[in-house]
Amino acid sequence: MxxxxxxxxxxxxxxxFLPPVFISVFIVGLVANGWGLKSLLQKWRKLKIINVFxxxxxxxxxxxxxxxxxxxxxxxxxxxxxxxxxxxxxxRFCFNLNVYGSIGFLxxxxxxxxxxxxxxxxxxxKLTVTHSVAISIMVWLLVSIxxxxxxxxxxxxxxxxxxxxxxxxxxYVEDYLKYSxxxxxxxxxxxxxxxxxxxxxxxxxxxxxxxxxxxxxxxGLKLLLILILLFSVCYIPYHVLKNLNLxxxxxxxxxxxxxxxNTVYIAHQISRSLVCLNSVLxxxxxxxxxxxILAQLRRQLQRACPMFSHPTSTNxxxxxxxxxxxxxQSLIHEK
Length: 335
Fold this sequence. Notes:
two-stranded antiparallel sheet, 12 helices, disordered C terminus
């Protein structure tokens, strides 16, 4: 039911909700991605094709995480942007690079896994690290081209307080909705369908081919679950609610207000916090794709909890003959 003089949207919600989310994502995401990138770079001479995509995935996360302190200040100051018009656009541009760059590199990882499992002989021998580097450059270029028009929309507006819009000012919301729908189709829907198709086929192959060992099946299905988690939690709600919120703003501009407009606005702000979590969840791809990182994590946990690395009393009867001989010799020397 529409109402031209109904209640207005509660814009204070984002000031209370987003800053704590940004702080948590910044701390956890910076530590997780920094550690993951460090581990990958230490093995840079042994980089595999898939690790090149994982490396770029981490760089996209770091690029966005470094802008979060400025957004924290912005929302803590009740949407008062003090860093200038240019830096506002750069900050929003980095967010878009992170979201659509992450989607792009996750799609590359999915296609690579598909080729490695379904067409291991026909295709995989022809792929090299040079190919993966070239593909990564193309992903960055395509994402930048898709995100570039967003920078030409008005991002700041105000008299005493200056906003830094994640979309644009209400004056241009109708044009921005059209751009956003096309952007969603090219930057999200098509890569999502490619990823879904790849892993749907992979799941069928893993369960129908008996010659594939159990470990490989488990690894493939785990990565499938990670990607389903990323898309379901981070990307699908964000794109649906972003466009729905823009449509609500278009109606509001036409002086048409629906009771669900406030609910859509709040849900959109929650989806913005969820899409930020991709910078925290992406390191799961690091852990899955790199056994060296898993080994380092186990060693760190053992150092943090020495009790887990000590043998228990139940294993005292399993001491080897060599260990017993060395122990006896040390007793003789002490005497």
